[in-house]
Prior knowledge:
Blueprint: E1 3-11, E2 14-27, H1 31-36, E3 51-57, H2 60-68, E4 73-80, E5 87-96, E6 101-109, E7 111-113, E8 122-130, E9 143-149, E10 158-168, E11 171-177, E12 184-190, E13 210-216, E14 222-225, E15 240-249, E16 261-264, H3 272-275, H4 281-288, E17 306-310, E18 313-317, E19 322-325, E20 330-341, E21 348-360, H5 365-375, E22 378-381, E23 388-393, E24 398-403, E25 409-415, E26 418-423, E27 430-438, E28 441-449
Antiparallel strand pairs: 1-2, 2-4, 3-15, 4-12, 5-11, 5-13, 6-10, 6-15, 7-12, 8-9, 8-11, 13-14, 16-19, 17-18, 17-20, 20-21, 22-23, 23-26, 24-25, 24-27, 27-28
Amino acid sequence: MKKIYILSMLSAGIIYAQDAKIKIENASFPIQEFKNRHELVQNGQNEKTSVAVVQDTLWYTLNKHGYRNQSWGGFYTVKAPYPSATLQLNHFGAKFMNSSPILISGLEIAAQRQASSPSASVPVRIYLCNLDANGNAQMPGIDSVQVVLTGTTIQFPGANFNIPKLVNGNFAIVYRNISTVAGDTIRAWMNNAGTTSFTVPARQYGEGIGLMSIKIGTAAPVHTVTTNMFGVNWDNEFLVAPRVSFSITANASHQPTANCLQTVLFSGNPSHHLTNKFFNMFAFTTAWGPFTGTLGSPVPAGQFLYNWSVGGASPTATTQNATTNYTNNGVMPVSFTCKYLKQNDSGIMVSDTYTGSITVSGCTTTAISDINSLEQSITLFPNPAGSHLNIKSEIENVKYSVLNMLGETVLSGKVQMGLNDINISQLKPGVYFVRFNASNKERVIKVVKE
């Protein structure tokens, strides 16, 4: 087993590469353990439900370890008592970002007993904590549970509180080895996250949510983030999870405009949990994709948090709002689905579907013919585009307007015959529509700004 040693020293809460040793040990992460926790059971449970109660275990830190890079595993070895009298690192965990009420019934960790421990079982206490103004875990915690580590390979032990705790806001989960037997040792498993500067793209998470408790001499222990603690650009987070229950709202309707270019809006206020990457695996994969590991994504191909079908085509958009261009008048079908995929292994919990229609007007037969003729006169490239668009026109005085996904004009002007350079550096990355008009002729081209 390969070992990495990073020399470091704590002074005023900062680790320097000089004195005490913090040791990360590499190990092969048990892929089957990860895979077992992410087998989808897509049985349509609670399909077409606008409001539902979700029960889940938020294995966010474990998902980050396994989703994009499953070839590496690591743990920090924790002895009892801690071998250094001047420097002690004895609480390990991570923070969870949340802004809506949730009921936390219990806690889980990923850890193991080291085979050299004198005891056959090593007790560990897991704490649920509020965060202080600096984002550090506050001790004593809101509540705690105790588990024991018996196996010498990775385990996922957990327990429930006597009374579930209602939490409204960010929180943390940390744990420590509480054995009183000298030499009892555990291995605290971490994910392989790095900062946004990390050289391996699959590890560029950079959130700074990992926590460790640092105690220097007789000073009170301080919980601090693990960013750079195990080396420059490392952002390891210990594998912890809350067992949660919460209500989720995912209703939808549309607000169309009555012309050829339609903007369809997600209506109502979806639950914060629906769009939170710490909760919804659809939101998680949107934030951390694309998948680059070996198992295949936990989210099936073609599945997204939002799926729009506008005008009978499916999907025409996978964003919260959808814009499409029509070339015919009439009543066009619209459908919308938003989904919640649990963080644990139980598959889709909520799938809310809306169906409706749009009445399209202002797209005459003449306009259709004009669009076809203008298509032969305008060329736009590159697409996707960076900071500039090139527009080649075979006719003079063509007006253009750039519309965002809400149908709002964000840029407009005029192009002349020949090659025209349009600066779009001020636009945010995303999908846009460029509308051209000349002598009652119209054409719309979809453009992706990178």
